[in-house]
Amino acid sequence: MKNKVSVLVGQRVVLGLLTLMVIAVLIFFGTQLLPGDLAHTILGHQASPEAVAALNRELNLDRPATERFAGWVMDLFHGDLGKSLANGTPIIDLIGERLGNTFFLAGLAAMISVPISVVLGVTSVINKGGWLDRGISWLTLSLISLPDFFLGYTLIFVFSVTLGWLPNLSSVYTGMDFWSRITAVALPCAALVLIVSPHMIRMTRVAILNVLGSPYVEMGYLKGLSSSRVVGIHALANAISPIITVIVLNMAYLVVGVVIIEVVFVYPGIGQLMVDSVSKRDVPVVQACALIFGTTYIVMNIIADTLAMIGNPRIRYSR
Alpha-carbon distance 79 to 73, whole Å? Predict the structure, then answer.
């Protein structure tokens, strides 16, 4: 089993590295297609042609794109993400705290959404066809249909503007105490929970329903076991592989897809930094943020595949 899983994981890692190379190419050459001229953006449109040419030489923009890409990749291998064009700050320092803020928000949302989703998914199966099952299905379909920004603005309107319970802007800073930080991120965290939980609830329900017709489930009912015991213990244990996959992929979304929520709540995370850098045409920062998002999604996909293979009895007990 260990050898087979190791081979499959190794294949996923190789494919992940190849995918990351393709993403790096798309990121670099995609940012070259951004409208406008970077030198004119920095110096202003009244700048002389000589000043523009000098800045292009300083930024190496006068070199061919393929040569600049090769230099960028070599710097990445040495752990150098470059410097921000807006203020000259090393990008690794610029994104450090921002990335920590994003992971804090995503981790908090994950700790809330995962147990809620599994419990509601199991509850829906136990009460299959009942009013509780229909209510959960209706709620999850409704939430899936709503855009992310709409959920965010709705939470702001209800809990900040109308009730005045929570701040509408999620301002966090270094040295902020834990409970103040929790209060500041309550609304964006709630928005993320409402975004990812419906997918995990529905996947949990479908995965368990797929194994309810198995002989061991029928044997459990014949032994007189309760529905909650059969579904919550026996069926859930054998449906865990697809459930783990969808949970881990939604955890990846909490990091990669957090951009919209960070912009809505003006949260100082890496998504907000990326949007600000696009408006400033700070191309190196945009490239670094996009590469971090791509790497995170690939790593989480590899973790999801690995956990799914380990949780698959056909792989675990194959000879």
Answer: 10
Token readout for 239 is 């449906």
Q: What are the pLDDT digits (tens) for 28-76?
A: 877 776 666 666 666 666 666 666 677 667 666 667 777 777 877 887 8
Q: Dump pLDDT digits (tens) for 229-257.
A: 666 666 666 667 777 778 887 888 887 77
Q: Which CATH class is domain 2-34+81-316?
A: mainly alpha
Provide the 3-class DSSP secondary structure of residue 307. helix
Compute the Cα dihedral for 200, 171, 97, 61 and give only its sign.
positive
Alpha helices in 127-264 (DSSP H): 131-145, 148-155, 178-211, 215-222, 227-229, 236-238, 240-256, 259-264
What does the alpha-carbon distance between residue 274 and residue 277 come to, in Å, rounded to a whole number?
5
- Consecutive H or E run containing 28: helix 2-31
Q: Phi and psi for 83 in degrees, rounded to 5?
A: -120, 150
Nearest to 291, CA basis, from 85, 72, 143, 39: 72
